[in-house]
Amino acid sequence: MILKSEIQNINIVEKLIDEISSRYNIHSDVYGKLLLAVVEGVNNAIVHGNKLQKDKDVVVEYDINDKEILFQISDAGDGFDYSNLPDPTKPENIERTHGRGIFLMNHLSDKLEFNEPGNMVKMVFFLA
């Protein structure tokens, strides 16, 4: 799925996850994690990666088998240093309005990986 970098396109991703959930009979616990983490990943790609530039695309891919579902989200941005993120649970960061997305994605998915420049994320969710 290829999306333009517009916030309203997150609705398309939500519908995709609903369709996948129905088609593959995804358990509600996994569905909730999947929805929150993937929407957060797409939001990050649109806002931070592509900086809301409508001419830049976000690519959302998924693969599913009996054991897991994988989502890969990539943007056209330069990436970021995913290895050096502030901990949003530390007192000095609690009041910040940004910085929780990757923390959430990491805790909701069973596996989280970034490519080297940091403009692509893979999230794996175990189905069993």
Automatic annotation (TrEMBL):
SUPFAM superfamilies: ATPase domain of HSP90 chaperone/DNA topoisomerase II/histidine kinase. Signal peptide: none annotated. Pfam families: HATPase_c_2 (PF13581). Residues 10-124 form the Histidine kinase/HSP90-like ATPase domain. The keyword Kinase applies. GO terms for molecular function: protein serine/threonine kinase activity. Gene3D superfamilies: Histidine kinase-like ATPase, C-terminal domain. Keywords: Kinase, Serine/threonine-protein kinase, Transferase. It comes from the Bacteria. CDD domains: HATPase_RsbW-like. PANTHER family: ANTI-SIGMA-F FACTOR RSBW (PTHR35526:SF3), ANTI-SIGMA-F FACTOR RSBW-RELATED (PTHR35526). This is Serine-protein kinase RsbW.
